[in-house]
Amino acid sequence: MAAFLFERLPVFPLLVDLAQPCQARSFFRSRGRRADAVQYVSAMAQHPFPNVDDFVSRNAARAADFDASGLHKNPSRKVAIVTCMDARIDVFAMLGLENGEAHIIRNAGGAVTDDAIRSLCLSQRALGTEEILVIHHTDCGLQNLSEDEFNADLEADLGVRPPWALESFRDPHDDVRQSIKRIELSPYIPETSNVSGFVYDVVTGELDPVT
């Protein structure tokens, strides 16, 4: 592990303080460029680590004049959005949403997994939503990632392979189509007449409709 990182970056001690070995190994394998590695470390060094004390302090400042008493637990726009956990995606800004208007369901890749189906089922059957947006994006961490190599890394570190699928993919548009098909075929989601798909460009900020 040490040799692997020293070959690519002279700040290895900082990386081992801030990232798990498996994560660092996956990052460098997927990127493979020194400039990306330097950018990665620089971004991590901009904020205190761990983050929790800073987050609690920021929350206290926000809560001092916060009042959401007028919001209902049911989304006012009756829409649920399934999208990726990618840190570059601000769902509210991307769609012009306000707090309380939509359910946001996020995971790695915006995959429609069993757990996403669980959330969509609750969203529709108990909380009144009737529309679903599936939004994937360009330059996703799962795009072109080798599931076999990732699982082999885990097995090497932990001795076991994960029981879940990583949901890696090649084309985000095709992956959106597959996600929509999973929604349409699920018996747990009653309303599928208003399901739309998009690919979000993380550089331009534009949504590309998937047909």
Question: Which architecture of the largest domain would the CATH scheme give at its second level?
Answer: 3-Layer(aba) Sandwich
Instruction: Kindly give the count of domains.
Output: 2
Arrangement of strands in the largest sheet: 2-1-3-4-5
Mean pLDDT: 86
Q: Structural class, from helix and strand content? A: alpha/beta
Distance between the termini: 44 Å
Range of helix content: 40-55%
**Helix-strand sequence:** HHHHHEHEHEHHEE
CATH superfamily of the largest domain: Carbonic anhydrase
Quick gist of this model?
The chain is of the alpha/beta class and 211 residues long. Helix content is 42%, strand content 14%. A hairpin with a 6-residue loop joins β4 and β5.
